[in-house]
Every structure is written in C-alpha cells, then in structure tokens.
Amino acid sequence: DAGITQSPRHKVTETGTPVTLRCHQTENHRYMYWYRQDPGHGLRLIHYSYGVKDTDKGEVSDGYSVSRSKTEDFLLTLESATSSQTSVYFCATRLLTSGHYEQYFGPGTRLTVT
Amino acid sequence: AQTVTQSQPEMSVQEAETVTLSCTYDTSESNYYLFWYKQPPSRQMILVIRQEAYKQQNATENRFSVNFQKAAKSFSLKISDSQLGDTAMYFCAFMKSGAGSYQLTFGKGTKLSVIP
After folding, report:
1. Which of A8, A97, B55, B91 lies deepest, with the highest CB count within 10 Å?
2. Backbone angle region of A61, left / alpha / beta, with phi > 0 → left and psi within -120 to 50 → alpha
3. Hey, is the C-beta of B35 within 8 angstroms of any chain A C-beta?
4. Nearest CA distance, A93 vs chain B (angstrom)
C-alpha cells in the first residue's frame, strides 16, 4: 500500500467547465503519474512528475495540465472539459521495492463529462 | 517506443483449474521490467507479479507464475488453482529501467472470468 488517495472519487461535469483532480500520497515518493483508462485502450500516461515543480508530458497530454507544488500532491486539470475526456483517471507513484522499481496506484476517479 | 499486446480480450476458466494469459511486447531496450496487474470490479489496480528482463528465472508469487521468453518477447501469466476472487481484468505492462520516466506502457487487458 503506497498510501495514495484520489479526490473526488466520482465527478459529473458539463462540457466546457474546468475540472481539477487531486492525488495525495503519504510516502514521500519522488515520481508521480496520471493515467487514464478507457475501454479497449488499457491505461495511458497523461503526465508525470519527477519532483516538486518538475513535470513532463505523456502519451495523451493534450487538453490536460498538471501541477506539483508539494511532494505529496499532484493535481491534474482539465482546463475546459470535453466529452472525450470522460474516463477513469488513476494516479500512481513509483516505489523502490527490494531494489526494483514498481508503480502502485490510487483507487481511481471516474469522471463523466456531459 | 514500446508496445504491449494482449491478444485475448476475454477468457474463462473453471474454478480450481489452471489458465494462462498471453502477452507479447516490442522494444529495442535491453533493460526493462514486465508486470502483470489485476483490476477486480472494485477498479483498484493491484500489482500481481514483476519480472526483471535480466533474470532468466521466471517469477512466481503463490498461485501466479510467469513464462518469460525474452528472445520471443513473450510474457505470459499462469494462474493455478483458479479461485472466484481471480475474476478480474488483467493487464500486462512494460517499464523501461535505467534513466527516464519509468512510465508504464500497458496492454489493452484480458477479462478473466472464473466459473464456479
């Protein structure tokens, strides 16, 4: 258990509105990630962070921005939500376990854009 | 770029039987990890097993074991003595090791149903 929480767990919003999802971890892990999960696509990386104020884009970053002002919090923002951003969003952190890296995931946020 | 392919969208197995889920991947990297994640109906992503590419020995975790064929770029998951709680989506994932983002690249998943 990597001590990851996500909020909110469920959200319904309208097209064009801004949305921010929060990921919070208690283990002081340096790397954090945002993925989205869609049927037929598995999970795909949106953005990741390798430290406070250090972020980079993933495979499907268009329409998303992120911020990390504290080690424990990684925020994902949809500036103007679209129906194509209806998805389940997962946050993850990278841990060193028995000398090897692994990623552990939060419980996910289901976002519906109407 | 890496790709991960899971060719079985759905599978079923009788309780107590053995089932094997397939995964192939494509990469030019020499140092990497491979993982299997389980996603039950609760939606939580649970790490099942990890394989380091430099290790020839196949990883095992209780009833879960892998068949790692590096030359063939194949990484299958075997579940022995299947239980009802094994019903879930299973995702194969690739992680490049060494410097970089350590991001995961996932396959599209296999939905496994364990039948009583």
Report:
1. B91
2. alpha
3. yes
4. 10
Residue B99, pLDDT above cutoff 80? no
Distant-in-sequence, close-in-space partners of B74: CB < 8 Å, separation ≥ 6: B22, B23, B24, B25, B67, B68
pLDDT, residue A14, reads 97
Q: Do A31 and B95 touch (CB under 8 A)?
A: no
Token pair, residue B60, equals: 């095992």
User: Cβ of B36 under 8 Å from any chain A Cβ?
Assistant: no
Distance from CA of A94 to the nearest CA of B (A): 8
Question: What does the pLDDT read at residue A2?
Answer: 62
Integer CA distances (angstroms), B101 to A49, A94, B72, in order: 8, 10, 25
- Whether B35 and B96 have beta carbons less than 8 Å apart is answered as no
